[in-house]
Amino acid sequence: MTEKLRLPAEETYRAELDALIAADSGPKPAGWALSPRAAVTYLMGGRAGETEISAKYLGNRRLIETAIATLATDRALLLLGVPGTAKSWVSEHLAAAVSGDSTRVIQCTAGTDETQLRYSWNYAQLLAKGPSRDALVPTPLFRAMEEGRICRLEELTRMGSDVQDTLITVLSEKMLPIPELNDAVYATRGFNVIATANDRDRGVNELSAALKRRFNVVVLPLPDDIDEEIAIVAKRVGEMAGSLDLPAPKNVTEEVTRVVSIFRELRAGQTLDGKTTLKSPSGTLSTAEAIAVMVGGLSQAAFFGDGALSAEALAPTVIGAIVKDPVQDRAILEDYLETVLKGRRAYADYYGAMTELL
After folding, report:
1. Are residues 152 and 271 in the same domain?
2. Are 31 and 176 contained in the same domain?
3. Which of 78, 175, 235, 358 has the most neighbouring CB atoms within 10 Å?
4. Is residue 75 part of a domain?
5. 29-81: per-residue pLDDT in tens?
6. Domains identified in the chain, total number
7. Domain span at residue 175?
8. Which of 174, 197, 219 corresponds to the end of one domain?
């Protein structure tokens, strides 16, 4: 077992990628590690010879096909959705399937400037010898263009609009000017960009019309079906428990079902049977948050309990996920406990544990 807390997708799933490469007879776009059909199998699951390929994304297959088809063209891909819809997860696995390398990544923030997208300088070399290729420090985008790889841009709309527009030349001309050297880097075939953006943050730094035109948008939704969401959470919790050496009790799926049900009701603003209208808290209560709650509960049970996953172990993290606003969300949760959970015998332990903590 590796001592690293987390490995990139291409290392974690190396055996699956190798099996797909060995069995892949489909046509590959220039610079791709897998054919588009094999890349879909890698993300959605299937078989490659005698090797079982695990599903990385449990959702609409057509969305993944559209994303991969986009990357085979000259258009960049924008994965859009509310927090917790697996945008970063899908982005990483798409890069691993297409390029065999998901590590060319830039985390966009309000403090991201043009040099973090284009290139910067080694100032010791710059002062000693002046502008030169040796003094230039390439960014992940720069390296992806040179190597013909995928570059991932996380949370694109958090970056300033003027910095975002640095991408226009890269995406339209497939080149990055280096005016200091009277030169440019031209993208090698296989290069493309996968960006992610948050539906809730679209107003932070909205993309310009010119930049939007360079992207094909694929919207990743929250799971419509509760059974699908339960399967996603249970699968990811099992994987994360294994990587963290946390024991997974037999009742994980049962507790996942109850937590996901609570989250879906508060997120939708009504009970699952549609009979009672509820107020929704300020948070998204996404699938990713449900996963985090369950892993937190496993840790609580393993280190401070008897190892059994219970409402008492999960209640603190459930409350933490729901109550983002200490006044408004607390009142909404209290109302939900009294009007919905109090009357459900199957949730009596959650009602008691959460009421005690509130």
Report:
1. no
2. yes
3. 78
4. yes
5. 999 999 999 999 999 999 998 999 999 998 889 999 999 999 999 899 999 98
6. 2
7. 9-219
8. 219
Confidence band of 2 (pLDDT split at 50, 70, 90):
low
Question: What average pLDDT does this structure show over 8-26?
Answer: 94
How many C-alpha atoms does 55 have within 13 Å on its Cβ side?
14
Q: pLDDT: is 202 or 270 the higher one?
A: 270
pLDDT for the residue 61: 93
* Alpha-carbon span 283 to 270, nearest angstrom: 16
**Both 97 and 175 in a single domain?**
yes
Specify whether 14 is located in the same domain as 119.
Answer: yes
Query: Once rounded to an integer, what is the mean pLDDT over residues 80-92?
Result: 89
Residue 182 domain-assigned (yes or no): yes
Name residues whose C-beta falls within 8 Å of residue 267's C-beta, 6 or more positions apart in sequence: 222, 280, 284, 285, 286
Model pTM?
0.86
Query: Which amino acid is located at 307 in the chain?
Result: G
Q: Which of 298-302, 320-324, 330-334 has the lowest mean pLDDT?
A: 298-302
Amino acid at 272: L
Q: What is the mean pLDDT of residues 195-199?
A: 88
Out of 155, 190, 219, pick the residue that ends a domain. 219
Same domain, 131 and 239: no
